[in-house]
Specification:
Carbamate kinase, 9-stranded mixed β-sheet, two-stranded antiparallel ribbon
Length: 258
C-alpha cells in the first residue's frame, strides 16, 4: 500500500531547518515519568516547552500519543476482555493524554487542536485530513487522538498513517529510557549493541522492537524516515536542527521496498 499526499514538499531554503513538518510519536509511558501510571505534570510541561520551541523555529509539529500509561488494550484482552472492546478503551486513554498535552502546550503559548479518530465532539474535533493540514499551515500544533479509530491497529500504525496523510518529512519516535534501537533489549541483555542506522526491512526481518510490523511496512513502502531516540530534554530540537540523535531508519532509492 502506498499513500502519497496531494501537497508536494518543496526543498528547504538555505539556513532553514532540514524538516518542514514532522510527526512526533509519544508513548503514554513517556508522559508518566517515574510514576507507576498516569501523567507526570513536570515531564509534560518540559515536553511542551520543547515542542513550542520547535514550532517557533518554523517547523510544523503534529503529535500522535499513546495510552499505555492508563490502559493497555492487549493486556486487558489477555485477561479475558473482548479485544475490540479493549482497544476502544485504549483509544479513550489516548484522548486523556491528548487533552493533558494540549493543556500543557497552551500554557506555554501554543495554539493547538486535538483531532480525534472517534467522535468526542465536546472535547475534540473529528479527524479530517484537509482540516489537519490547514491547522498545521496556520502554525497550530495538532494532536491526533484515538489512534486510527479502529480496533486491532496500534498507535504506531496511526503515527505512520497520519504522517503520510499530512506529508510529514519524518516520524520522530520518542522512547522512554533507551537512546535508540538495539539488537536486543538493553534492560535485559547486558551486551545489547546500539544500532545507529537501519533500513526498514532490516528492522522487520530482525524483529527489532521499533514499532509494529504494519507501521514499519507502511513507512518502508512510502520511504518515510523514522528517528528513534530517547525522550530527554533537547533531543527533539536537536533532531529537527539536523543532528544525528538515536537511530535513523530509512529506505533509499534502489534499496528494498522499491
Amino acid at each position: 500500500m502506498t499513500v502519497r499526499p496531494e501537497e508536494s514538499t518543496a526543498p528547504a531554503a538555505a539556513g532553514a531547518p532540514p524538516f518542514r513538518r514532522v510527526l512526533l510519536k509519544l508513548s503514554g509511558e513517556a508522559l508518566m515519568g517515574d510514576r507507576d501510571y498516569g501523567i507526570d505534570v513536570a515531564v509534560t510541561r518540559r515536553l511542551a516547552v520543547e515542542i513550542v520551541g520547535v514550532r517557533a523555529d518554523g517547523v510544523d509539529v503534529a503529535i500522535v500519543v499513546g495510552g499505555g500509561n492508563f490502559y493497555r488494550g492487549l493486556a486487558a484482552s489477555a485477561e479475558g476482555m473482548d479485544r475490540a472492546t479493549a482497544d476502544y478503551a485504549g483509544m479513550l486513554a489516548t484522548l486523556l493524554n491528548a487533552l493533558a498535552l494540549q493543556d500543557a502546550l497552551e500554557r506555554e503559548g501554543a495554539d493547538t487542536r486535538v483531532l480525534s479518530a472517534i467522535t468526542v465532539s465536546e472535547v475534540a474535533e473529528p479527524y479530517i485530513r484537509r482540516r489537519a493540514i490547514r491547522h498545521l499551515e496556520k502554525g497550530r500544533v495538532v494532536i491526533f487522538a484515538a489512534g486510527t479509530g479502529n480496533p486491532y491497529f496500534t498507535t504506531d500504525t496511526a503515527a505512520a498513517l497520519r504522517a503520510l496523510e499530512i506529508g510529514a518529512d519524518a516520524i520522530l519516535m520518542a522512547k522512554h529510557g533507551v537512546k535508540g534501537v538495539y539488537d536486543g533489549d538493553p534492560r535485559e541483555v547486558e551486551d545489547a549493541r546500539f544500532l545507529p542506522r537501519l533500513t526498514h526491512l532490516e528492522a522487520i526481518e530482525r524483529g527489532l522492537k521499533v514499532m509494529d510490523t504494519t507501521a514499519l511496512s507502511l513507512c518502508m513502502d512510502n520511504r518515510l524516515t523514522i528517528h528513534v531516540f530517547e525522550l530527554r530534554d533537547g533531543n527533539i530540537a536537536r533532531i529537527v536542527a539536523g543532528e544525528d540523535v538515536g537511530t535513523i531508519i530509512q529506505t533509499g532509492t534502489g534499496q528494498e521496498g522499491s
